[in-house]
Amino acid sequence: MQKRSSFVPYFVIFLFLSIVIFGFAKAGFLRPIEPIFHTIFAPIQAITYNSNSFITGFGTNSRVKELENQNMILTKKLINQDKLMEDNKALRDQFETKNPISTNLIPAQVVGAPGFLPGITVPENYTIDKGEADGVSFGDAVVFKDNLVGRVVKTTQFLSSVQIVTNSSSLFTVKTLETNALGVIKGQGGGNLILDNVVLSETLKLGDMVLTKGDLDINGGGFVPDLIVGEITAISKNPSDLFQRAKIKSRVDFSKITKVYVVSF
After folding, report:
1. The model's pTM
2. What is the rounded CA–CA span in Å between residue 133 and residue 94?
């Protein structure tokens, strides 16, 4: 009881001083010495605030960080699973294709398309993730299902450059499916193909499919027969010309293709 009664005077004094200081502060009397108070108490305030933030936020920040890491891992797993399912479907579809022979195929991922700007240009060349170490050689045909994509024009140990059929440097012999007319495919750039050098006596039909005639060399480079190049969409035939021509549209969207197959022998 004695201890409690001895505490009361100190409490009253402290309360009185607090009221006085508060009154002086409200009246503006302490404004000249505010910088001194700030210098003295600011470090203490900062330590108190940081300690409080650390204590109150420790558990929360730790849990949030753990959830973020788990979310990143889960997202990566989902992406990898989707890619695996896509690759498996592409392989299954390709190996169900009768031409070219599936045992001669090397699956490859398109990892680059130099000069390609979506919505502005179309791909003229691909870079694929297979090279000499994987059995890819200069001149090998590149296909998607039974559609011709292009030809390997350069190889390194682990990468290769593919010239797409629509490239302006692309040139090879073809035949039409229904009428068996012979001609030459010339890439025009910009995703365009022309069937040229078809003699006037040959018959061309709208909607007819154009196939590779086959030009394999002794080393296995070139195109096997009957790969689909595209469909005839327009015919130009003038009796005064030596040859007739036709516009060809490929069935492949070269701007969206991501996986191809190299035909190797």
Report:
1. 0.64
2. 22
Are 247 and 93 within 8 A, CB to CB?
Answer: no
Q: How far apart are CA 234 and CA 229, in angstroms?
A: 15
Distance CA(107)–CA(118), nearest Å, equals 24
Q: What is the pLDDT of residue 53?
A: 47
pLDDT digits (tens, 9 = 90+) for 67-117: 666 666 666 555 566 555 655 555 556 555 656 655 578 999 999 999 999
How sure is the predictor about 48, in pLDDT bands with cuts at 50, 70 and 90?
very low
How many independent structural domains does the chain possess?
Answer: 2
- The DSSP string of 71-97 is HHHHHHHHHHHHHHHHHHHHHHHHHT-
Task: Write the single-letter amino acid at 110.
Answer: V
Residues 140 and 56 in one domain: no
Candidates 97, 156, 151, 148; CA nearest to 130 is: 156
Q: Does residue 35 sit in the same domain as residue 143?
A: no
Q: Domain residues for 210? A: 104-263
What percent of the chain is helix, strand and coil (3-state, nearest 5)?
Answer: 35, 30, 35
Mean pLDDT for the chain overall: 79
pLDDT tens profile 141-173: 999 988 999 999 999 999 999 999 999 999 999
Residues in the chain: 265
**Rounded Cα gap, residues 227 and 93, in angstroms:** 16
Beta strands per DSSP E along the chain: 105-112, 125-128, 141-144, 147-155, 160-164, 171-176, 182-189, 192-199, 209-212, 228-236, 243-249, 259-263
Q: Are residues 65 and 116 in the same domain?
A: no
